[in-house]
Specification:
Distance between the termini: 35 Å
Largest sheet: 2 strands, antiparallel
Membrane topology: Multi-pass membrane protein
CATH class: Mainly Alpha
Helix content: over 70%
Keywords: Lipid biosynthesis, Lipid metabolism, Membrane, Phospholipid biosynthesis, Phospholipid metabolism, Transferase, Transmembrane, Transmembrane helix
CATH superfamily: CDP-alcohol phosphotransferase transmembrane (TM) domain
Number of helices: 7
Shape: globular
Number of strands: 2
Strand order of the largest sheet: 1-2
CATH architecture: Up-down Bundle
CATH topology: Four Helix Bundle (Hemerythrin (Met), subunit A)
Catalytic activity: a CDP-1,2-diacyl-sn-glycerol + sn-glycerol 3-phosphate = a 1,2-diacyl-sn-glycero-3-phospho-(1'-sn-glycero-3'-phosphate) + CMP + H(+)
Strand content: under 5%
EC number: 2.7.8.5
Protein name: CDP-diacylglycerol--glycerol-3-phosphate 3-phosphatidyltransferase
Number of domains: 1
């Protein structure tokens, strides 16, 4: 197994630790951050999420630079991304920090695009990620990080950066999904 795939696997292995940090009621204390409080365990989970999200860029860069792109990597990388983001969003709903309907739309888009990619793969077609999809990913990571940090440091000035980013992520998620289907509809139309 090459280095980029090991990095991707490390991202997958960080997900259970991330879930535990947010699910188990650790009594590590909390910080007052303006009008809100930030539990230390949520801060630790946010750091872990940011580190795990960063490995997505690292493994992709490394695979392309050293020509180490493999079928295993093509399978694991998007799977790791979807598992990490879905776990974070579902936990944010459970904690009351994100509206369920927004999370349902975001996760539904991911299932739909994955389904389209599976149909394409069955026809021997590889569908590349679009620049809009990359923007979707960045806004999702920023939104989730801000929500996990309970809007720190914007909580000091009462600016709802976390919710603005969540709705921006929703917009780019839906827009990129629609764009992806429009550009690749021929896959569905021409499939046997």
């Amino acid at each position: 197994m090459n280095t980029p795939n090991k990095i991707t696997l490390s991202r997958i292995f960080l997900i259970p630790i991330f879930i535990i940090l947010l699910s188990v009621p650790f009594s590590w204390g909390e910080w007052n951050i303006g009008e809100a409080t930030l539990p230390v365990s949520h801060f630790a989970a946010a750091l872990l999420f940011i580190i795990a999200s960063t490995t997505d860029w690292v493994d992709g860069y490394y695979a392309r630079k050293y020509n180490l792109v493999t079928n295993l990597g093509k399978f694991l990388d998007p799977l790791a991304d979807k598992l990490l983001v879905s776990a974070a969003l579902i936990l944010l709903v459970e904690m009351g920090l994100a509206p369920a309907w927004v999370v349902i739309l975001i996760i539904s888009r991911e299932f739909a695009v994955t389904g389209l990619r599976l149909v394409a793969a069955g026809e021997g077609i590889v569908l590349a990620a679009s620049s809009m999809g990359k923007l979707k990913t960045v806004t999702q990571i920023v939104a989730i990080s801000a929500l996990l940090l309970h809007n720190f440091p914007f909580s000091y000035i009462g600016f709802p950066f976390d919710m603005i980013m969540l709705y921006a992520a929703l917009f780019f998620t839906v827009y990129s999904g629609v764009d992806y289907f429009i550009k690749n509809w021929h896959v569905m139309r021409d499939s046997k």
